[in-house]
Design brief:
single chain; 333 residues; alpha/beta; seven-stranded mixed beta sheet; flat
């Protein structure tokens, strides 16, 4: 067994959770392939550089690709969370939410997209800007837009296609180059509960509900628990919609108010509503999500994006989250 490979005690927990096809590689090689996938995300190397002890690199990649598309890694993390919940090791008394930016390597460029899908994405991006696929948005005072021609039309079409490809790949453009953003929710011990992948320029606040909606903590009987006791987040998540959502579900909001929001509320007087308060002592524990990002990004293939497809990159985060839960389970037995 090589360094960082799963141990026998860890394999006992995850072996029943990995699907084995009736045809293809022998089941006894599944453990080698799983370790090979872990090695790739730990080192950030290319699949062709996979050590021979894990088997042919093309076989390991094909198995990973099939698992990623089928959502096996997300199901694996959910199953390990369920196992931890059965042992009383999931702390939902405080869930912390935050995001982290992941720089994109040049190897993640060039995602293959079907022509119909690319055309639909271009049309959607054009409609968001209030125009049509054949030209710019309507002019001032309802005047008909002037159609672009020649080099200008070609440049506009190229820009639309680049934006559509980046959106399909979950990539965003900023001053630092292409990047993705991972939004996460963690429990009171800093163990990951849910991930949401967006382009790097996406704002944090709109993804608050999306992250919380992905929390599923199964119990021994009944439906999975989806409502923590309290949710902590920084000022970027301060909004009336988020607070109303938490209040409606009976969840305590541990989110400080922004200065401009407080100033606008005071200007309105009694119409501005009650002052927003939060538990300052409980807010000190919000650093658990930062510690979780530190654990996640200790693997090069997760700290930097090398995968072309968003499904593969998100699968790497679910794999790393599964290993964090696996280590927690085996260390408490």
């Amino acid at each position: 067994m090589a360094r960082f490979d799963v141990t026998d005690a860890e394999w006992v927990l995850i072996e029943p959770l990995l699907p084995v096809a009736a045809t293809g590689p022998l089941p006894r090689r599944v453990r080698d392939h799983f370790n090979g996938v872990m090695w790739r995300f730990r080192t950030g190397s290319r699949w062709r550089d996979l050590p021979e002890r894990y088997g042919p690199w093309s076989t390991v990649y094909s198995r990973f690709n099939g698992w990623a598309r089928a959502g096996v890694f997300q199901a694996l993390m959910s199953a390990l969370i369920a196992e931890a919940a059965g042992r009383g090791l999931v702390g939902l008394e405080l869930v912390s939410v935050d995001s982290t930016v992941v720089r994109a390597h040049q190897d993640c460029a060039g995602l293959a997209i079907a022509g119909e899908t690319l055309d639909a994405l271009e049309q959607a991006l054009t409609e968001e800007k209030g125009g049509s696929a054949g030209g710019p948005a309507a002019g001032v005072e309802g005047r008909a837009p002037q159609a672009e021609s020649g080099a200008g039309a070609d440049r506009a079409a190229t820009r639309r296609r680049r934006r559509a490809r980046a959106k399909a790949a979950g990539l965003g453009r900023s001053r630092g180059g292409l990047s993705s953003k991972v939004h996460a929710a963690v429990d009171s011990a800093g163990l990951p509960l849910a991930f949401v992948l967006t382009p790097g320029q996406a704002e944090d606040c709109p993804q608050f509900l999306a992250v919380l909606e992905r929390i599923r903590v199964p119990g021994p009987v009944g439906r999975p628990r989806t409502r923590p006791d309290a949710v902590a987040a920084d000022k970027a998540y301060s909004s009336k919609a988020n607070r109303a959502y938490l209040r409606k579900r009976g969840i305590k909001a541990v989110i400080p108010e922004k200065r401009d929001q407080a100033a606008n509320r005071k200007k309105k007087g009694s119409r501005g509503g009650r002052p927003v308060s939060h538990d300052t002592e409980l807010y000190k524990d919000r650093n658990t999500v930062e510690r979780c990002f530190q654990k996640l990004k200790s693997r090069r293939g997760v700290a930097t994006r090398y995968d072309k497809s968003p499904e593969s990159f998100e699968a790497g985060y679910h794999l790393r989250g599964s290993i964090i839960w696996l280590k927690h389970l085996t260390s408490t037995t």
